[in-house]
């Protein structure tokens, strides 16, 4: 087993027959890193951080844990979960980034993809690494992305992975935002857009709520694209409330003409201008039936990779102002379309009308696009909304507590009002709560799968669903 470092306590605890790590070194910095995550609300110190060099190393770490009572193992991707899901208190944390060498990403043939290709990717690879590998080496990219690409493939797939797009490769993108004062109009248009036939659909549909103010984080200034027209509040209809909505769509342009090094630059420019104008007209025609506030529409042409990397700019700014490293009391929900208008009235307009110091995403998705074999829990009905309260607060202590309480109050309101909703990235502490989350049938399937694949509950202790068992079924004491 090849371990790059492991702390001394765990090394001392390692049973002789478990196979010794080839490298053992105390690393307080690595332990500190593995003891926290992006959420900044939970801390759990591991006994050791393991850098696996191969799949065999992962297997060996799990075998070693199985031989010791109470030792657990957590895979850690990029640590961007918010409730300690990638942590292992007193256990082993496998740093999956160690396995993510670019040379380990391979293009493979498959009958399950429309173009016959798939990528074979180490779980610890960042989506950003997959994007650059695919585009540069093969002119290909996955069909769907998360909004932010510095998440690992394994960490995202283990939790879900949502965004507002299906994929068509192209070097330019027309990216458009339009504003609504009426939530009913917003949802009607958003649902219409996500149910359009593929040949008449945008490649990406998302949206967010923002507040009727000049707040740079939550208000009007967050909607226009830099360098373009500004937000003119005079265009809002009389009686526009404290909360507004922005629908965001993107159309990818398929490149008819690949730029060649000996292309004449002027000809290229003229061709590009022509293609951009055509795209603009096409997007305008697709937007024409929508009921957004006329005049409050913003568009920009960006490259495909630039569009997919858009959240990197948010990261840079948040690192500058200190809110990246601060706690993130985020709350992510799936709310059924049946209840979304009532949810908006009670929660978004009712409880969060002053904004949340970060984006409030709210956009529809289709249940039929989700694989029923995964363990994600969704509300009933074909259309449901992602509601993501992505708070970036710089103040610690009491302010964080207040926001965590507000999250609890939102959940309590959803339950009290009988909304059909599920938490996304759930973080429950008791079995009845997990059972309610999955529903009776799916909970049974989940428990059966755990018993089959991880009978001692060694893995994923940070999810706090199954306590580490000391006996196998049949009574063998470990
Ligand atoms: C700024 C930001 C933007 C985000 N944007 C989106 C978005 O657009 N869409 C979306 O769906 N989510 C989004 N998320 C949430 C994100 O997808 C999840 O938090 C995800 O789990 C983070 O990935 P990670 O690599 O950091 O995983 P970690 O936090 O390291 O791990 C998460 C879970 O996955 C497990 N895990 C990690 N790697 C593996 C592996 N190789 N094999 C098995 N299990 C593994 C861990 O044990 C843990 O339980 C965002 C989060 C942040 C902080």
UniProtKB/TrEMBL annotation:
Molecular function GO terms recorded: cytokinin dehydrogenase activity; FAD binding
Annotated region described as Disordered, given as residue ranges: 256-278
UniProt cross-references to SUPFAM superfamilies, sorted A to Z: FAD-binding/transporter-associated domain-like, FAD-linked oxidases, C-terminal domain
Domain FAD-binding PCMH-type: 42-256
Parts forming coiled coils: none
Keywords: FAD, Flavoprotein, Oxidoreductase
Compositional bias annotation for Basic and acidic residues: 268-278
Signal peptide range: none
Record carries keyword DNA-binding: no
Gene Ontology BP, a term: cytokinin metabolic process
A Pfam family matched in the record: Cytokin-bind
InterPro entries: Cytok_DH_C_sf (IPR016170), Cytokinin_DH_FAD/cytokin-bd (IPR015345), FAD-bd_PCMH (IPR016166), FAD-bd_PCMH-like_sf (IPR036318), FAD-bd_PCMH_sub1 (IPR016167), FAD-linked_Oxase-like_C (IPR016164), FAD-linked_Oxidoreductases_BP (IPR050432)
UniProt cofactor(s): FAD
Protein family (similarity comment): Belongs to the oxygen-dependent FAD-linked oxidoreductase family.
Protein name as it appears in the record: FAD-binding PCMH-type domain-containing protein
Organism: Eleusine coracana subsp. coracana
Organismal lineage: Eukaryota, Viridiplantae, Streptophyta, Embryophyta, Tracheophyta
Gene name of the encoded protein: ga21181
